[in-house]
Amino acid sequence: MSVPVPTPFADLQRILRGPSGLGTASLYPTPRQEPRPPEDPATDGRPIPGLYHHPVAEPDPVRVEEVSRRIKAWALDEVSLYPDDWEEEFDGFSVGRYMVGCHPDAPTVDHVMIATRLMVAENAVDDCYCEDHGGSPVGLGERLLLAHTALDPLYTTQEYQPQWAQSLHADAPRRAYRSAMEYFVQEASPSQTDRYRHDMARLHLGYLAEAAWAQLDHVPEVWEYLAMRQFNNFRPCPTITDTVGGYELPADLHAQPALQKVIALAGNATTIVNDLYSYTKELDAPGTHLNLPVVIAEREGLSAKDAYLKSVEVHNELMHDFEAQAAALVAACPVPSVQRFLRGVAAWVDGNHHWHRTNTYRYSLPDFW
Prior knowledge:
By secondary structure, the chain is mostly helical. Helices cover 64% and strands 0% of the residues. The chain has 18 helices and no strands.
């Protein structure tokens, strides 16, 4: 039975505010603050014209500084993540600012660090196995499978177990996955852990589809590209918002099709944001890098500008659908943990856009306006 969709905006405000009234104060682990006005776009990166988004406050600078300090120490001292000549790029990624902005309800810096380590580990796999730093589609399946065992451990015979355990230290991506996952399982419940492993398997499947197209020098149809992007996307990040928030959305509620749809739409919309803000960066990189504007231009015969503008429209439709579906779910399932989880996902969506918009070290907009 389908859930009727009410007027989304009033209910969406409930998602963003969260539940109120007698007995709900405990749902807010940190004091709630009114957001400060956004930074001046002229000095802090302008948003893509016409892109539907919600301005948010600048992340807490004290927390950002501490997370940034801790994640760099982890990367260097615990997992030997990168050589010296990658330091500027690591700093320019501004992962501390990214994760603090995406998880405003995290009760402590330790909770933010759960997400931050996982984000850095995921990017190490993407860069070193797939793209910027020696990545290649050739042999990617083997590399991803072996790295995935750092998240979903191998159970084998006594003779071969030590060889597998030693392999987890063989390269930076596996070292990062292993360590980040060890920290995660200390805070996550078994169902939250299994949920994350499932979403990482989805991510790796998306990597493999994109790699197959690269090996074949094939540009997929637009709908095929969007299907790939539903797997190769940010979904593992917002799906752990409850772990980072210090609570748990029960597994039976998380598995509900309506909630799965909301999470998928959030992942799809935020990933198209990445396609749009990284467009010029990817054009400057060697070879052909698939993103939504490139695929639309090729498959629908549009100019680069018109394909980019149509990609903005695709993003906006996904965002409106995400918000409408979330509002309908709030109305149909007024359970505090569901409401809080949806509020966390919405905060992740907004924080992800804010980071992309303001990270002028990595991103610049095309000259289409």
